[in-house]
Specification:
The chain has 177 residues and is α+β, with helices and mostly antiparallel strands. The chain has 2 helices and 10 strands, in the order H-E-E-E-E-E-E-E-E-E-H-E.
Length: 177
């Protein structure tokens, strides 16, 4: 996720500067990237965030909304398939928000978190279209504007080991007004 955010932060800085000249949203293609996770298990009712926020340079112009869309291929060794999950994002430090410190990650009650996707069901090796920032595109924008963000997931069904998410053909739609 850090690769996505670093790449998108650079592109978004340019995009925000260009979009400031018009009121239309700007579409910015992002480089392909992968995220690997040792194991994913059922966390229904809880959102798991990485211990540290993704950090990057703030854009020169504040961003109002961001939506990321593209293809995701998920590969894993199933323990219980398929993986059904929803993605979340936050800009406030989970440690200061009453989340549980689980060593390598933060565990937060999903009821108090902000979803940035609908629910997705991933079969092993399947590729599908995903959108992050729908609903709540402003939380991604707030993270870009602050220069840090935590992106996590709630797994409502399934468990797997050796999970890899390959994000391809990703595009950021940016609005600055």
């Amino acid at each position: 996720m850090k690769t996505l955010l670093r790449t998108s932060a650079l592109l978004l800085a340019l995009a925000a500067a260009l979009a400031a000249c018009s009121k239309a949203p700007l579409t910015v293609p992002l480089e392909d990237f992968s995220i690997s996770v040792d194991a994913v298990g059922n966390t229904a009712g809880q959102v798991v965030y990485p211990k540290n926020a993704a950090q990057f340079d703030r854009p020169v112009v504040d961003v109002k909304t961001i939506r990321l869309s593209g293809q995701v291929t998920v590969s894993y060794t199933a323990v219980q398939a398929p993986l059904v999950m929803t993605f979340y994002a936050r800009t406030a430090d989970p440690g200061a928000a009453g989340c549980t410190d689980a060593g390598l990650a933060w565990i937060c009650d999903a009821a108090g978190e902000t979803p940035i996707s609908g629910e997705y069901s991933f079969a092993n090796g399947e590729t599908q279209q995903v959108t992050l920032g729908d609903p709540n595109p402003e939380v991604l924008a707030d993270g870009i504007n602050q220069g840090r963000i935590w992106i996590g997931a709630e797994v409502t069904s399934g468990a797997a080991t050796g999970v890899t998410f390959d994000f391809t053909q990703m595009v950021a739609e940016v609005t600055v007004f």
